[in-house]
Amino acid sequence: MNRLWRLSLVGLVFLLAACQQQQVAPPPPPPKVTVSQPVVREVVEWDEYTGRLEAVESVDVRARVSGYLQSIHFTDGEVVKKGALLFVIDPRPYQAELNRAKAALEQAIARYGRTQKDFARAQELIKSRAMSQEDVDTRAADQREAQEAVQAARAAVEAAQLNVEFTQVRAPISGRISREFVTVGNLINGGTADSTLLTRIVSLDPIYGYFDVDERAYLKYSRLWRNGQRPGSREVNIPVYLGLADETGFPHQGRLDFIDNRLDPNTGTMTGRAVFPNSDLTLTPGLFARIRLPGSNQYEALLLPDGAIGSDQTQRFAFVVNDQHTVEYRRVELGPIINGLRVILDGLKPEEWVIVNGVQRVRTGAKVDPQPQAIPRPQALPMPEATAAKP
Fold first, then answer.
1. Cα 370 from chain centroid?
2. pLDDT for 338-376, tens place per residue?
3. Where in the chain are the domains?
4. Rounded-to-integer distance, Cα 371 and Cα 357, Å
5. Which fold has domain 49-56+205-298?
6. What is the pTM for the complete model shown?
7. What's phi and psi for 273, nearest 5 deg?
């Protein structure tokens, strides 16, 4: 019995020692979190659309006269200048018609000269009453008729001359030409609605970029214009940027050139058009393109990494560390992402320290060990100055 009592006493001593050890154990250190102050900078909200490039000028080259194709004077796919000779249609039938018209003109001129002399003699004879007034009137009418015949003959010569010129089909615009659709020796039908298509030319510099704006975006732009926060697209040349499928970013800068006058009721979109310089001929009609244009005026904004923002059902929040290293809950209103950082419209101040790493390890009111770290400031696309639109 004494042995059992001694064992119980020893166990009680060890139990008291363990309790005392647990009471003096230090609490765990507060978790380390990375904190940063929001980046403050001037930003512009950019809207992106998918568009397609189209030529400013596109011409289906057709003959204006009919005949057999005699020769071709270009290489398929080359860049041609306006006025360059492309095709020649056999000119001999039209040259013969021109020669006939010229001969008819000479006959008309000769007849007109004879009637002039006849009328002049009649005017002298009527003074001596050697000719009746009726004969004089007849000769005057013959003169007028001959004069009109000369004008008609000259018009026939001009028409025949035009037909001879039209046998040489020249480039109506400068641009890149397609292939030859008809080979030498074929009969060409010209001068009608069903004229033979010979080739096609598209201009390259400058070039259009067409895109469709949805109804919400159109209403936003209209509201900004009405509130005086952004000039209207028909008043100034709003800058537009373009990037191709294999390009990083938007290296091509142009300007907004046209906005349609109505929304398409079938798609709920409105067509916009931008024009871009293309001196190096990088842009080709038919290519898809990414188009970006300013969706707001330039304004000062707070920016944070998107990972610093938490979600509480329908609310967005951020954790702020105060001077006592205590976590505080901040409800925030978000804007778009610009250059990888989220715009904070409301809920934070520039001098506050926001947890940007370790959000999942903290809760409101908890103590933390903040580790300050600056947020990298990516280079932003500036807002170029809009120039006055051409009247």
1. 48
2. 777 888 888 888 888 888 887 787 788 888 888 888 887
3. 32-44+299-372, 49-56+205-298, 67-91+167-202, 92-166
4. 10
5. Elongation Factor Tu (Ef-tu); domain 3 (2.40.30)
6. 0.69
7. -140, 135
Which architecture, in CATH terms, is 32-44+299-372? Beta Barrel (2.40)
* Pair 339, 382: CB distance under 8 Å: no
Structure tokens at 18: 């363990």
Secondary structure in 3-state letters for the chain:
CHHHHHHHHHHHHHHHHHHHHHHHCCCCCCCEEEEECCEEEEECCEEEEEEEEEECCEEEEECCCCEEEEEECCCCCCEECCCCEEEEECCHHHHHHHHHHHHHHHHHHHHHHHHHHHHHHHHHHHHCCCCCHHHHHHHHHHHHHHHHHHHHHHHHHHHHHHHHHHCEEECCCCEEECCCCCCCCCEECCCCCCCCEEEEEECCCCEEEEEEEEHHHHHHHHHHHHCCCCCCCCCEECEEEEECCCCCCCCEEEEEEEECCCCECCCCEEEEEEEECCCCCCCCCCCEEEEEEECCCCEEEEEEEHHHCEEECCEEEEEEECCCCEEEEEEEEEEEEECCEEEEEECCCCCCEEEEECHHHCCCCCECEEEECCCCCCCCCCCCCCEECCC
Beta carbons of 294 and 384 less than 8 angstroms apart? no
Class of domain 92-166: mainly alpha
Q: What CATH class does 67-91+167-202 carry?
A: mainly beta
Question: 25: which 2 tokens?
Answer: 């154990």
Encoded tokens for 131: 């000719």
> 141-197: per-residue pLDDT in tens?
877 888 888 888 899 999 999 999 999 999 999 999 999 999 999 999 988 888 999
Residues comprising the chain, all counted: 391
